[in-house]
């Protein structure tokens, strides 16, 4: 079973690339982020024509997450995180596909910092940790897949100096990420690539793709029951280099 996280940076703008990926690669589950689409304008027909069922939690022009499943429709478990009722950002969608719990999540960027956006990021990560603990308590295969907007380690970026002031790499952001791992989640890509140097995002600016000046912010965290089934993990990097591609590459885990 191949489970993918893919920040598409606008599903309508990138729809040809998304359909291309689905038809060429045929992953079993795709957790999509940054739809930038309202619920009403989600391109369901094109997704279904590619052979996938879908659930989505949209937001006009911003945010938005979805779960796509090959040959079936995901079963919704929860949308949004508890703990902040006034939070209207569409950033979390939790589903069940076959025997696996999957959550597609899009964490706040947090810039500029310090300030309210960084404070919101940290509160959101605390709320995620509470939900993650509840999922772990079910003792089932589960995958928290998404754009975490966190660079966990120095070797997860092309340049520590370039990113040192960014919200993605602050000690508070990293500590919140480590708190998730300490619950018992496994960072799948890190497990397979322990030396780092693997990127999932390359900015559109300053020739970042051409220079391979990227960093790793798209993560798939596995519950112990899912980690026991881990076969592989990686980045489908070539899709970042295609015409009018997202600035993220599909990032995946393979489970037995």
Automatic annotation (TrEMBL):
Cofactor dependence: Mg(2+)
A GO molecular function held by the record: double-stranded DNA 3'-5' DNA exonuclease activity
Keywords of the record: Hydrolase, Magnesium, Metal-binding
Matches recorded under PROSITE patterns: AP_NUCLEASE_F1_1, AP_NUCLEASE_F1_4
EC nos: 3.1.11.2
Regions annotated as coiled coil: none
PANTHER family according to UniProt: EXODEOXYRIBONUCLEASE III
Identification of the protein by name: Exodeoxyribonuclease III
């Amino acid at each position: 079973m191949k489970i993918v996280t893919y920040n598409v940076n606008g599903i309508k703008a990138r729809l040809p690339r998304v359909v291309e990926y689905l038809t060429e690669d045929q992953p079993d589950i795709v957790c999509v982020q940054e739809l930038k689409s309202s619920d009403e304008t989600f391109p369901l027909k094109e997704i279904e024509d590619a052979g996938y069922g879908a659930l989505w939690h949209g937001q006009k022009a911003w945010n938005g997450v979805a779960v796509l499943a090959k040959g079936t429709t995901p079963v919704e478990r929860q949308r949004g995180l508890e703990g902040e009722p006034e939070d209207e950002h569409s950033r979390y969608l939790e589903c069940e596909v076959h025997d696996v719990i999957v959550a597609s999540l899009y964490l706040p960027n947090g810039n500029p910092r310090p300030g309210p956006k960084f404070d919101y990021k940290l509160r959101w990560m605390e709320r995620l940790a509470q939900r993650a603990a509840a999922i772990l308590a079910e003792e089932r295969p589960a995958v928290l897949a998404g754009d975490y907007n966190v660079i966990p380690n120095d070797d997860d970026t092309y340049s520590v100096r370039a990113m040192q002031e960014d919200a993605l790499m602050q000690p508070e952001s990293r500590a919140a990420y480590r708190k998730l791992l300490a619950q018992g989640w496994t960072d799948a890509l890190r497990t397979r690539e322990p030396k780092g140097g693997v990127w999932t995002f390359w900015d559109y600016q300053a020739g970042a793709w051409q220079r391979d000046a990227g960093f790793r912010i798209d993560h798939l965290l596995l519950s112990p029951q899912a980690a026991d089934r881990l076969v592989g993990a990686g980045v489908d990097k070539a899709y970042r280099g295609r015409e009018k591609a997202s600035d993220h590459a599909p990032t995946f885990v393979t489970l037995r």
